[in-house]
Amino acid sequence: QVQIVESGGGLVQPGGSLRLSCATSGISAFVFRIGTLKWFRQTPGKQRELVARIDESGNTNYEDFVQGRFTISRDDDKRSGYLQMNSLKPEDTAVYFCNFHGNWGQGTQVTVSS
To answer: Which of 18, 42, 73, 105 gets the most CB atoms within 10 Å of its CB?
Structure first.
């Protein structure tokens, strides 16, 4: 059974940084290595939206609203993914979710506020 656990969220002031982690289990090393890992976020009353993705070759894509501020990465040996978030803004406040092969974690809350 695939399990995904996000961590690293918290309260941060505008302009601050956070690093989110996405730990997976129940996935073989081969399957993880060839898969695309994605980060989404969701605020109350809104649909979950894609933030960034990284494919098996390390190619990355970012939504415009995080381009230049967020960096997605992965560690295939650890079967984990990461989202480095810099220059955070209040509008980045959301629950952040990791997605791999259609599986979701429980999310981690990020709150940007002074």
So the answer is: 18
Q: Where are the alpha helices (DSSP H) in the chain?
A: 29-33
Structure tokens belonging to residue 67: 């381009």
How far apart CA 6 and CA 86 sit, in angstroms, is 18
Alpha helical stretches, state H, 9-99: 29-33
Q: Which residues pair with 75 in a beta bridge?
A: 80
Instruction: Give the amino acid at 45.
Output: G
Whether 21 and 75 have beta carbons less than 8 Å apart is answered as: no
**Nearest Cα residue to 52 out of 65, 39, 69:** 39
Residues 67-93 as b or e (16 or more Cβ within 10 Å = b)? eeebbbebebeebbbbbebeebeeebb
Backbone torsions φ then ψ of 52, nearest 5 degrees: -160, 160
Name the token pair of 35.
């898969």
